[in-house]
Each structure stands twice: as structure tokens, then as C-alpha cells.
């Protein structure tokens, strides 16, 4: 079951250089359809303005520096957040993708994509990195018609030991 950190929790993210303080949960990023687990501001600076907002998901957290204040009321609210997550997933007709592969088989991590064009995303970068830490290779399965973005092609060439693409027939 998914859990959320309390408001006020200070964290660092994988490959992050700055501590962040969570001040929102289950947030939609303005101008996009992206819904993130958390909205945070720089710590100790605080909320400067919207251009400094940091959106991220639970699995992006490397370290909890300080756990925020948690009450019975917050624990009840977390139940509502979890219900909302489940509702969002059902309404989309699919499970919200995180940074977990769709399948792990031996030393191969599979990510299955159904799209006409695939670009290099944070998800692909993080899965490639995590697979490399486990001495595994990320295999992205796409349709034979799928076009790979130029940046993704370059990334695959650069990290060919850790990532490849297989086309479905």
C-alpha cells in the first residue's frame, strides 16, 4: 500500500544536491497532466515562488533528513490520499507508472511502452541507472512502428551496456 510522508518532511532526492521540504501531496503540476506524489520547496529557503517548486514521486527520495509532524488527523488524511490515488489509477484505466520496471527476469529489466514516439524520460534514465547498480540491463520493448527520439537514441548508444530496445512484432 502506498504511503505519503507528512507535511514538513525534509528529504534529499537521488542525484539531488539540495534538501527539500514537502509542503504538498498528490499535486498536479500546472500546465501539464502530471500528478506527482509531492510538491516541495528548497530547504532552508522555503517557498520563494512557483518557479522554485519541485515535484517528485515517493521513489525519487534517497534520504529522509527530518520526518514532518504527524497527527491522527494526518494519518486519516493519508487514507484519503491513498483512495484518491486508487481512483486516479482506475479512471485512467491503467496503473500509474513509477520508476519500477514492468518485469524483471534474471539480469534483464523490461519496460514495455505502447507509443508512436518514445523520448528520453526521467523514468528511463532512473531505470537504466538502477539496473546498472544491480548488474542488469534495461530492455525497452516497443512496437515496430515506434520512433525513438534522437536524444534517446544517443543515450542508448552511450549506455549500450545498460540499456537496449527490442521491437515487438
How does the SSE layout of this entry go?
Elements: E1 10-13, E2 20-28, E3 35-42, E4 54-56, E5 61-66, H1 72-92, E6 103-105, E7 108-112, E8 117-118, H2 122-133, E9 137-143, E10 147-148, H3 150-158, E11 163-168
Parallel strand pairs: 7-9, 8-10, 9-11
Antiparallel strand pairs: 1-2, 1-5, 2-3, 3-4, 6-7
Question: Can you walk through the features of this model?
Answer:
With 169 residues, the chain is α/β, with parallel strands linked by helices. The chain is built from three helices and eleven strands, in the order E-E-E-E-E-H-E-E-E-H-E-E-H-E. The protein has helices at residues 72-92, 122-133, 150-158, and strands at residues 10-13, 20-28, 35-42, 54-56, 61-66, 103-105, 108-112, 117-118, 137-143, 147-148, 163-168. A hairpin with a 6-residue loop joins strand 1 (10-13) and strand 2.
Quick recap of the structure?
The chain is an alpha/beta fold. It has three helices and eleven strands, in the order βββββαβββαββαβ.
- Sheet bearing the most strands, described? 5 strands, antiparallel
Helix fraction?
A: 10-25%
Termini distance? 35 Å
Instruction: List the strand order in the largest sheet.
Output: 4-3-2-1-5
Instruction: Please compute the radius of gyration using only Cα atoms.
Output: 18 Å
According to DSSP, the number of beta strands is 11
Number of helices: 3
The chain-level structural class is: alpha/beta
- Report strand %: 25-35%
Order of helices and strands: EEEEEHEEEHEEHE
Arithmetic mean pLDDT: 87
CA-based shape: elongated
Which blocks of ≥5 consecutive residues have pLDDT under 50? 93-97
Amino acid at each position: 500500500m502506498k504511503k505519503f510522508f507528512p507535511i514538513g518532511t525534509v528529504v534529499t532526492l537521488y542525484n539531488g544536491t539540495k534538501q527539500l521540504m514537502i509542503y504538498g501531496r498528490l499535486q498536479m503540476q500546472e500546465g501539464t497532466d502530471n500528478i506527482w506524489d509531492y510538491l516541495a520547496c528548497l530547504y532552508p529557503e522555503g517557498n520563494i515562488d512557483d518557479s522554485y517548486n519541485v515535484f517528485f514521486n515517493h521513489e525519487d527520495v534517497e534520504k529522509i533528513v527530518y520526518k514532518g509532524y504527524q497527527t491522527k488527523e494526518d494519518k486519516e488524511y493519508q487514507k484519503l490520499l491513498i483512495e484518491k490515488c486508487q481512483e486516479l489509477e482506475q479512471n485512467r484505466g491503467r496503473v500509474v507508472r513509477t520508476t519500477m520496471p514492468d518485469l524483471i527476469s534474471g539480469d534483464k529489466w523490461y519496460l514495455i511502452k505502447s507509443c508512436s514516439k518514445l523520448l528520453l524520460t526521467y523514468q528511463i534514465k532512473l531505470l537504466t541507472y538502477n539496473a546498472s547498480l544491480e548488474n542488469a540491463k534495461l530492455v525497452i520493448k516497443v512496437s515496430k512502428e515506434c520512433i525513438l527520439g534522437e536524444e534517446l537514441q544517443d543515450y542508448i548508444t552511450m549506455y549500450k551496456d545498460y540499456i537496449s530496445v527490442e521491437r515487438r512484432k
